[in-house]
């Protein structure tokens, strides 16, 4: 049992290290939801570790998330946009998303 718990913690720590947490918490300025992708304009000029060209945007393809995660992300994004609640998205450290914006991993923090 201790071994299993240790492996879970190790995997979790590895996933956290393989993410880009450098973005700032900010209100979503504009949100473009398409059938295959989502583009978010948040106004943060953080370039991200991946060096994507559009510093004020982040994006992802729906196909990069499983269905349950996509539903939760969609609901949370709409709620954050409507309520003007600042969120801090977590980015992929080496890849860019649609429109050469920072690639969203499916995780964010409400602050």
UniProtKB/TrEMBL annotation:
<feature type="signal peptide">
    <location>
        <begin position="1"/>
        <end position="18"/>
    </location>
</feature>
<protein>
    <recommendedName>
        <fullName>Rap1a immunity protein domain-containing protein</fullName>
    </recommendedName>
</protein>
<keyword id="KW-0732">Signal</keyword>
